Amino acid sequence: MNDYLLILGRDPDLSLLELVSYFSARNISFKIKDKSQAAVLIALPELDFQKTITDLGGIVKIARVIQDLDNEVLYAGKSNKIKYAVSVYSDTDTSDLKEYLKGRLREEKLKITYKRSSRTEQFLMPNDVVRHRLLDEGFELVVYGGIIARTIAVFNPYEYEKRDKERPLQRTLHMISIRLAKILINMVGAKEGDTILDPFSGYGVLLQEAMLMGINVIGVDNSRECADATKKNLEWTAKQFGTRVSFKAIHADSKQVSRFVRQADFAVTEPYMGPLLPKIPMKDEALKIVAQLNPLYRGVLRELSRVVKGNIAFIVPRFRLYSGERVKIPFERMLQEAGFRVVSIMPEIKMPLIYSATDSKIEREIWVFRKA
């Protein structure tokens, strides 16, 4: 077991729960030694860390902790021209470290270029690391308190952008982000060979990401347009990426899933959450939307209890008002009525988690639960 620093994304609690669920589902031994809103210090066995960071949606960098900086091989390439950076995720003075690196690299007869953040932070964003090819043509050190670590894997945002652009059918305003899709898939504990059901598949983004992780998928949507789009996007995913999993897209009412789906290991979904809101709603409008969604969610929960064996991740909207008040769906009561219990992944982090996308008129409650 070695110590690693994992840099968390913009929703630290979500990232932590995803991380714990991911390792637990794969029976990977781990020990969290320290955590903050920025990073997790964790002991892990040797893994394929590039695959790990590709699977995860909430981790932006993985860095191996350096025990002896003087004897650490910082660059093993053949070129004598290298780029390097120091990213700081704590209130730490790194002036001595930077001087040490400059002197050491010059002693090694290397022509060096120091890369700074393109923003105001003291750390490079993942796109900076990828754009400068630091892991191929140099190195990045990560500083967290008194810990120095060397980045060994980084999230590549350009791959997400490429998939979003090349997907045959698009519906930008109603599609879940790739990042959140991955987090939800991992939070339920799904892994290679399992089967995930999405009863509100939309255009299939969530199922596409599951397929890329080696997970079989079933999508259901009551819109013929969406069911057809899911089918075409999943066919494209299978062909484009050579996935070897089963996939199915079904045009059906989500409140009648058990008529079309016999069984699934897990379910993950961002359901229909009401009409697209041009602005923050008035209270009467929010209450009206909640009244429309209540029977839909109750019906879907009843069906999921019949076909899903394991954990379920379900996003529920709550509506912000100008007064600061929130209009909520009584989802916890619905879970109890349907015979579900909330899953505790980490006791100190309570469900639901609140996720608010940029410029969104609603907030999202993220629930993970299973049959009681």
The appropriate CATH architecture of the largest domain is: 3-Layer(aba) Sandwich
Mean pLDDT: 94
- The N- and C-terminal alpha carbons lie at a distance of 36 Å
- Strand residues, percent: 25-35%
Number of β-strand runs: 17
Which range best describes the helical content: under 10%, 10-25%, 25-40%, 40-55%, 55-70% or over 70%? 25-40%
Give the topology.
Elements: E1 2-8, H1 12-25, E2 31-35, E3 39-44, H2 49-55, E4 59-65, E5 81-88, H3 95-107, E6 111-114, H4 126-131, H5 134-137, E7 138-144, E8 147-154, H6 157-166, H7 178-187, E9 195-198, H8 205-212, E10 216-221, H9 224-241, E11 247-251, E12 266-269, H10 283-307, E13 312-320, E14 326-328, H11 331-337, E15 340-342, E16 353-355, E17 362-371
Parallel strand pairs: 5-6, 5-7, 9-10, 9-12, 10-11, 12-13
Antiparallel strand pairs: 1-3, 1-4, 2-3, 4-8, 7-8, 13-14, 13-17, 15-17, 16-17
Descriptive overview:
The chain has 372 residues and is α/β, with parallel strands linked by helices. The strands form 2 sheets. Strands 9, 10, 11, 12, 13, 14, 15, 16 and 17 form a 9-stranded mixed β-sheet that branches. Strands 2-3-1-4-8-7-5-6 form an 8-stranded mixed β-sheet. It starts with a strand and ends with a strand. The chain has 11 helices and 17 strands. It is 33% helix and 27% strand. Helix 1 (12-25) crosses helix 7 (178-187), helix 7 crosses helix 8 (205-212) and helix 8 (205-212) runs parallel beside helix 9 (224-241).
